[in-house]
Amino acid sequence: xxxxxxxxxxxxxxxxxxxxxxxxxxxxxxxxxxxxxxxxxxxxxxxxxxxxxxxxxxxxxxxxxxxxxxxxxxxxxxxxxxxxxxxxxxxxxxxxxxxxxxxxxxxxxxxxxxxxxxxxxxxxxxxxxxxxxxxxxxxxxxxxxxxxxxxxxxxxxxxxxxxxxxxxxxxxxxxxxxxxxxxxxxxxxxxxxxxxxxxxxxxxxxxxxxxxxxxxxxxxxxxxxxxxxxxxxxxxxxxxxxxxxxxxxxxxxxxxxxxxxxxxxxxxxxxxxxxxxxxxxxxxxxxxxxxxxxxxxxxxxxxxxxxxxxxxxxxxxxxxxxxxxxxxxxxxxxxxxxxxxxxxxxxxxxxxxxxxxxxxxxxxxxxxxxxxxxxxxxxxxxxxxxxxxxxxxxxxxxx
Length: 399
Fold this sequence. Notes:
This protein is of the alpha+beta class. The chain folds into 2 domains: 2-110, no CATH class; 120-258 and 307-395, 4-Layer Sandwich (Phosphatase 2c, domain 1), CATH 3.60.40.10. The chain is 31% helix and 21% strand. It is built from 12 helices and 14 strands. The strands form 3 sheets. A 6-stranded antiparallel beta sheet has the order 1-2-14-13-7-8. GO terms for molecular function: metal ion binding; protein serine/threonine phosphatase activity. It is an enzyme of class 3 (hydrolase). Its EC number is 3.1.3.16. Residues 130-381 form the PPM-type phosphatase domain.
C-alpha cells in the first residue's frame, strides 16, 4: 500500500507502532483476486453462468480451477466473504496470508495525502528586512516544512515575528501554524501587560493547537518562533526545532528539544498514562512519535502537548544573529558549527550574505546524509537593539 511507504519514510512518525496494535488487519487484495472478481462480474450477466450445472468448459469454471482466491478480510473462513461477493464455499482455497499491517484506515488515508498532492517545489527561499530563510526538500514526495516571517510588525521596524514549522504526517499542521500562530500570539500580547508576555505566547500556541484540531485533519508540527518586541527577544519552541544565537561567535542554544528521551518528558508522559519505548534506536511515544510536544497529533494529544517552553532576554550589541532551524539541520550540524559557518558569511566580511549562509548550512546537512526536510532561518539581531540600550552601554563604558 502506498500509505505504508509514506509513513515509514518519516523519521518522526512510525506506523508500525504498538499504539496501533490489536486493530483489525487490512489485507490488500492481490491482482489475481481482482482479476477473478472482474471475470465473475462479467459472467453474471448471463443467467446460465450462475447455474451449478455449468459446463466444465465454461470460462468462469476454468478460471476458478486455475486461480485460488484470497480472502479480503482477516478471517480465513470461506464463508467470511459472504454470498453477496459471488464466491461459493467450493470456490475459495486457503492460501498463506500476507504479513499483517497494523494501520488504522483513517490514519492511512490521511498520512498518504501528501503523495497525492503536487510534487511542489524542491526549495523555498526568502529575504526581507533583517532575515533570510532557505528550505530544502528531503527525500519525501512533498515538502512538509513551512516558515513565517513578519518584519515591521504593527508598523514598527523594531518589532517582528519569525517561525520555522517542521510538519510530520503531512504539511497541513505546519501550514496552519505558519498562517495563524503569529496572529494568535499578537492577539494575546495586546491584551496583557509586558510582564506577561510569556503567558501571552503560551496562550497563542494553545489557541493555535485548539483551532487546528477543529479542522479534523491528521498530522502535526514542531515549531520554533522568535517574537521581537520593545528590545526583547522572546523565543519559544515545541518539539525538536531549535533556536541558536551567536554571542560574539559563541553558540548559545536558547531552546531545548522536546523528545521522549528526555527524562522529564518521559516522566510527564508516564504520569499521563502513556509510555515511551525504543523503536529501531529511536525513543517514541506509544511506539509512534519521536517528539513529545507539538501542534496537532490528535491521536496522541493526551501526551503530545502544545505548551511551549519560552525564554525571554534583552537584545544586546554582542548578540549577532539568531538561527532558527528544523531538526533536518540540527541532527547533522552542531550548534557551534552552524554559528561558525553563518558568521563567516555574515559578520567577518565586507558584504554579508545571510541567504548564502542558510543555503550552505542546508547543503552541509544534506551532504552528511539527512533525508529530512531542512529549513534554516537567519535573523540579524543588530537592527533590533534599542538606542536607549546602546546609550546605557556606552555610558557604562565611558565610566
